Hints:
By secondary structure, the protein is α/β, with parallel strands linked by helices. The protein has one domain (about 1-180): 2-enoyl-CoA Hydratase, Chain A, domain 1 (Alpha-Beta Complex). The chain is built from eleven helices and nine strands. It has helices at about 30-45, 65-70, 80-90, 105-110, 140-150, 150-160, 165-170, 180-195, 200-210, 215-235, 235-245; strands spanning about 5-10, 15-20, 50-55, 95-100, 100-105, 115-120, 125, 165, 175-180. Helix 1 (about 30-45) runs parallel beside helix 3 (about 80-90), helix 5 (about 140-150) packs across helix 6 (about 150-160) and helix 5 crosses helix 10 (about 215-235). The two termini are about 25 Å apart. Coenzyme A binds near residues 105 and 128.
Amino acid sequence: MADDLILSQQENEVFIIEINRPDKMNALTDEMYRLLTECLKSAEANPSVKVVLLKSSGAHFCAGNDLADFLETEFNQESNVIQFLITLASLKKTVIAAVNGAAVGVGTTMLLHCDLVYACENTKFSMPFIKLGLTPEGGASQLLAQRCGPAKACEWLLTGRNILAEEALQAGLVNQVFADNQTTWQKAMDSAAQLSSRSQQVLVESKKLMKGGQVDEVIELIKKEAVVFAERLQSDEAQRAFKAFLSR
Ligand code: COA
């Protein structure tokens, strides 16, 4: 069932969204982005929800966009992935992410829009766009430098190399690192419970102030990146890279 690919449930005032495609390392398809957006919008609209918690089932957070989908699905500024990223970037409610294993491509860039990120020490982040003939997406072309500094952003985006959890912690990509998945998840839940004991208005106003009116700029950036990304997806270089992965 396509609906099973994204699970959601509410625990007290916490809305938990779980990416559930562990056999494909939680790689995201067009339909999964649509479902994620639907979940985010319903959490945002629900007055009994204060905090959104994003996680994945199995050993990996997310292996990025499904590479077969890149070949099959038309991509443009209106695509479900762009709607998902824009919805996440503009969410007024607090978003916490709990990550483990592989966090590739959008599996890392979506974290730039989360307010708190907790990682298991086995997490390997990467933004391998360059290796696939692609360009940064999801706001990463500028938000990564803002969050982790220009040196790290350049190196990570221009090499596409793996970033271990400890390095991600030192650079400020994540808030805290834990020894195992269970402890990481528990910390995310505890943190969500603690935040949801605060008033909704204070949470929302605090986030708004911390974003400093940047949300519209970020949305424009995501759309601008999408134009270049769409061109790159059609390039021989990118098409060859996807086919090479799929025919291994
Ligand atoms: N799209 C589609 N399927 C993917 C996927 C992706 N992005 N990432 C992993 N999978 C699938 C594999 O095809 C495989 O499925 P199969 O068992 O049916 O063959 C399964 O998930 C396990 O992946 P596998 O490659 O065998 O695991 P690994 O441990 O050897 O390698 C990665 C892990 C993450 C290094 C590797 O899967 C990879 O490079 N994935 C692509 C990541 C990527 O480029 N994402 C897009 C960024 S823009």
